C-alpha cells in the first residue's frame, strides 16, 4: 500500500504496532473528526504514546523526525481536546510558552543532543532519551534533577573536545532559556539549583511533552542543516 503520511489510514496506524492490529473504529472516529470537525477521542493518546515509547526504546532504526503521521495525529488530538488553560500546539517550535510539560520535552531533547555531541556522535548504548523518556514524560521531578547534573558532565566533555569545543556555550544558553521557562532564575543558575519540575504529568500533558521533544529536535536539526549549508557555501567561495 502506498504511504501517505497524513491519510486517515496511516494516522490510525500510529496507534498500533502492526497494521493487522488496527481496529475499524479508529479510522471511523478519524473520518468523523475530518468530516464533522469533531475532536478525536482523548483515549487515542494512550496507544499513540505507548507506541512512540516502544519505538524509542526497542527499535534501533526508528527516526523520530520522519514519524510525521504520529505527531500529526498527536497534535490534532491535543488541540481539539484542548482545555482553555493549556497551550495550543503550533506547527513549529513554540519557544516562548511557559507550559511545563512542553518545556520538559524540549529540555530532554537538548540534553539528548548534548550527550551525543559529548560522545562526538559515536555513543555506544542507549541515549538519555531512550533511557528516560518514559519516566521524564510522566514524573519529571523524579528524573530531571539527575539529568541536569549529568548534562553538566556532558557540557564539560564538549568543552574539552578538539572537534566541538566552544559548542558547549551555545548548548548551555539554550538549556538555560528552557530552564528559565520552568522557573530557574539567574541566581539559581549560578548556584546550580534546578527549578521545581512537575511531579507528575497527566495524559494530555504527556502528549505535550512528546510534541515539545519532537519540535525541539526538528528545530535543532533544521538549524544544523542551515549552518552546514552556510559553511559549505563559504568553503566553496574560498576555493574559487
Written account of the structure:
This protein is mostly helical and 240 residues long. The chain contains ten helices and no strands. Helix content is 63%, strand content 0%. The radius of gyration is 19 Å and the shape is globular.
Concise account of the structure shown:
This protein is mostly helical and 240 residues long. It contains ten helices and no strands.
Characteristics:
globular; 0% strand; 240 residues; mainly alpha
What's the structural blueprint in terms of helices and strands?
Blueprint: H1 8-13, H2 25-36, H3 45-58, H4 68-80, H5 100-118, H6 128-138, H7 140-159, H8 167-181, H9 186-190, H10 203-239
Average pLDDT figure: 93
Number of strands: 0
Outline type: globular
Order of helices and strands, N to C? Answer: HHHHHHHHHH
Quaternary: single chain
The N- and C-terminal alpha carbons lie at a distance of: 48 Å
What ranges have pLDDT less than 50 throughout 5 or more consecutive residues?
A: none
Strand content: under 5%
Largest sheet: none
What's the alpha carbon Rg, rounded to whole Å?
19 Å
Helical/strand content category: mainly alpha
The helix count comes to 10
What percentage of residues falls in helices of 4 or more residues?
55-70%
Number of domains: 2
Amino acid at each position: 500500500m502506498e504511504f501517505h503520511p497524513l491519510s486517515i489510514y496511516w494516522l490510525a496506524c500510529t496507534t498500533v504496532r502492526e497494521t493487522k492490529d488496527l481496529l475499524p473504529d479508529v479510522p471511523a472516529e478519524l473520518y468523523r473528526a475530518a468530516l464533522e470537525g469533531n475532536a478525536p477521542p482523548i483515549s487515542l493518546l494512550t496507544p499513540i504514546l505507548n507506541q512512540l515509547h516502544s519505538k524509542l526504546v526497542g527499535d534501533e532504526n526508528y527516526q523520530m523526525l520522519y514519524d510525521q503521521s504520529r505527531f500529526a495525529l498527536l497534535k490534532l488530538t491535543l488541540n481539539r481536546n484542548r482545555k482553555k488553560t493549556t497551550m495550543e500546539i503550533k506547527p513549529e517550535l513554540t519557544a516562548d510558552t511557559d507550559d511545563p510539560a512542553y518545556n520538559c520535552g524540549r529540555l530532554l531533547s537538548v540534553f539528548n543532543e548534548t550527550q551525543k555531541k559529548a560522545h562526538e556522535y559515536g555513543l555506544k548504548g542507549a541515549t538519555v532519551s531512550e533511557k528516560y523518556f518514559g519516566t521524564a514524560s510522566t514524573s519529571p521531578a523524579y528524573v530531571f534533577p539527575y539529568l541536569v547534573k549529568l548534562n553538566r558532565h556532558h557540557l564539560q566533555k564538549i568543552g574539552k573536545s578538539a572537534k566541538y569545543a566552544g559548542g558547549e556555550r551555545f548548548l548551555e544558553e539554550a538549556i538555560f532559556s528552557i530552564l528559565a521557562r520552568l522557573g530557574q532564575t539567574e541566581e539559581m543558575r549560578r548556584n546550580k539549583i534546578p527549578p521545581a519540575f512537575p511531579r507528575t504529568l497527566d495524559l494530555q500533558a504527556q502528549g505535550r511533552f512528546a510534541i515539545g521533544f519532537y519540535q525541539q529536535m526538528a528545530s535543532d536539526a533544521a538549524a544544523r542543516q542551515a549552518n552546514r549549508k552556510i559553511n559549505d557555501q563559504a568553503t566553496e567561495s574560498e576555493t574559487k
